[in-house]
Amino acid sequence: MADLERFRSEARQWLEANAPKSIVGLQLSEMEGTWGGRNPTFDHPDMKPWLERAAEKGWTAPTWPAEYGGGGLSRAEAKVLSQEMAAMKLPPPLVGFGLTMIGPTLLQFGSEEQKREHLPKICRGEIRWCQGYSEPDAGSDLASLQCRAVRDGDDFLITGEKVWTSYADLSDWIFALVRTDPEAKKQEGITFILIDMLSEGVSVSPISLISGKSPFCETRFESVRVPVANVLGTINGGWTVAKALLGHERSMIANLFGPSTGRKKGKKGSALAALARAYVGEDADGQLTDAALRHAIAQTEMDARGFGLTVQRAGDAAKAGHQPGPESSLFKVYATELNKRRTELMVRIAGPQGLGWEGDGFDAEELQRTRDWLRARGNSIEGGTSEIQLNIIAKRVLGLPD
Ligand SMILES: Cc1cc2nc3c(=O)[nH]c(=O)nc-3n(C[C@H](O)[C@H](O)[C@H](O)COP(=O)(O)OP(=O)(O)OC[C@H]3O[C@@H](n4cnc5c(N)ncnc54)[C@H](O)[C@@H]3O)c2cc1C
Questions:
Q1: Is the CB of residue 9 below 6 angstroms from any atom belonging to ligand 1?
Q2: What is the mean pLDDT for each group of 10 consecutive residues in the chain (402 residues)?
Q3: CA of 386 to the centre of ligand 1 (A)
Q4: Is 249 one of the annotated active-site residues of the chain?
Q5: Largest Cα–Cα distance of the chain, in whole Å?
Q6: How much is the pTM?
Q7: What is the DSSP string of 17-68?
């Protein structure tokens, strides 16, 4: 404990000396922040020096080994660091699928050469990654994927189509699942491969949704030449790597919408209660006037509290070196379904003011609330739908028969 407290004070000193004052309290909504890449954009000009200083210290990826550009911190130290950053209202210096998905998977399955090639670039925010899993006929049934990779000497020639590739138009590399053995049982003919998006034959078209712009893209490969050395894990052994990455992805999504979301307590209770007081009103005793709403808020808060304790338990297991396994499905399904209920409740509380999309009749917070409510629906689909998570929990956690 004494060591941790010493680390806390060192971390605070370093943050005070290195985090630009101008970014304190910078409000970034969900999925915003510095994603890095060959053509990075910054929400604020001082996010650039913030990224550079944090990367030099290894604190963009605090728990990764220092030899690959990480901070070499223990999980307990990393938790202290994030507590100090939260206390100082500092935005993360870097976000993205490099840090949350492919990085941890490279640490697990990458060769020494692959780790040295890719991890430092992720830590420095030089390369932005996207995920090429889903195809037009392979979503929940991912193992049916058809994107073909045919061996040609020391390369594979890749041809096929991926869909719903979030931010492919802004990304530099893609981690993709390809079929290398069409004769094998479907899970056994899949290879996990890393592809530079600048390779000849890669094309990306953004997909527009009914709500306008979207992060989604279609990504096509037309005889794209990719070195066999870019295979992560073994040829035809990609399913194991793919599942491990999904474990990291589900943990990341669960963390984004985990137990602390929207639960900051003020003097008079939770953020939900404060919102209800503002829109619905309270009686002379300070109680919300709408009894049904009181019940719904209490239920959501109790569920969030129960979930928080379960997450804490898993956090302790992680400190002991436990990698996320099929039980990450439990966190993913619960966090995203809870967040759907919470955002729905917020819209309900705001009444007609909760349904604004644009125009003068709504303030910025109200417009954001509508978007958060709709975006929450996607969270229970990406990384595998809630129904698929329930199937995984039934089969692989509870051991129930098919
Ligand atoms: C916001 C968002 C971001 C995404 N980003 C990416 C990305 O970057 N890269 C990428 O590769 N993909 C991405 N996806 C795609 C995502 O992985 C798929 O949408 C998801 O796996 C579901 O596949 P599908 O859309 O083909 O739906 P389907 O598989 O067609 O499913 C349709 C419905 O049927 C249900 N269903 C299907 N099979 C079963 C079953 N066996 N038992 C019970 N119910 C079942 C599903 O739960 C769902 O409700 C993203 C999706 C979203 C929403």
A1: no
A2: 92 98 82 88 93 98 98 94 96 96 97 98 98 97 98 98 97 98 97 98 90 86 98 98 93 73 56 92 87 94 90 75 79 94 95 91 92 89 95 94 85
A3: 9
A4: yes
A5: 79
A6: 0.91
A7: HHS-GGGTT----TT-S---SSS---SSTTHHHHHHHHHHHTTTSTTS-GGG
